[in-house]
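Regression check, MRU case 349:
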Amino acid sequence: MMKHIRPIDWIPAQPDSIMPGTLHILDQTLLPNETRFVDTTDQAAIWNAIKILQVRGAPAIGVAAAMGVAAAAQAAAGGRRDDVLAAVDFSADYLATSRPTAVNLFWALERMRRHAHASTTTDAAELATELVQEAIAIRDEDLAMCRTIGEHGAALLTDGDTILTHCNAGGLATSGYGTALAPIYVAQEQGKNLHVYADETRPLLQGARLTAWELMQAGIDVTLICDNMAAQVMKEGRIDAVFVGADRIAANGDAANKIGTYGVALLAKAHAIPFYVLAPTSTIDPDAATGDAIPIEERGAEEITEGFGRRTAPAGVKVYAPAFDVTPAELITAIITEDGICRPSTIHV
Ligand code: MRU
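Current build output:
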């Protein structure tokens, strides 16, 4: 079994107790050049880590947010039960403002809030401990779901297949394994040889910096392409299937993912290549009837005009920077969750 990348972890001060503990966040803005961690329990630092993409990818954002709430509860553990509840509510409201699109963030925050208010303990320290345990459970369940997604997806892969992926929906974006990349890791364990084309994924280069990096670490054969090369690569007959992740899946199967995914889906359709969306059920939003209800994050112009510190566009140019797009359900061959492989029209909400 592969060694998991742990992009987000809870590190206890002592080995025999989960409290006190600290969030341990792999700073993904520095990859692939540097492996450095942010160790914090500070709410503003956790919010910032999510906002600036030190921790990113829908499931990993959810885990970070849950651990953020746990850290807030821990800080209030010396007081009364009501102090812990107030800290939990404050933290959940605050962290919910960090990024708008990935529903896993809100899912995890609400799970933590629900757990806190439903707990019957009257002891503040005990309640805080329960919340740390709940955050760790969210992480462990995510890892298990990703593994299962990988097993379902690997059944679609045969030895020698070539997959194209967009952005990073790998171990770095989850508690381990990833979603879109999980089948590739599982297939590798099964002895299948696969090849992956990774779109570089402008403007923040999650494909180049993160997907290429983690696949190479795992010994998977990966080729990096610029986003605008995908059509040519498909036309040359190099791609057997497209695997992507999702940040939020609407009740009708429309799926939001990193900007550019919709274009890849259109290209796949034009070249009769199957297009799969892989995500845990925590990414399904039953309250979004269609993709039109999914909020799309807009990011700063500087990520396009001077990404990574070098100006590549004239100062003052107008910029539009949506970070996500929505692929309509009719372009999706199947959605793969931990529950199995289904047509977008039959997802359970
Ligand atoms: O802006 P990011 O890097 O958080 O965007 C990430 C993606 O779009 C991923 O594909 C998605 O969150 C799925 S991660 C398993």
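Comparison notes: Residues 8-147 form a domain with the Four Helix Bundle (Hemerythrin (Met), subunit A) fold (CATH 1.20.120.420). The chain has a mean pLDDT of 97. No diff flagged against the previous build.
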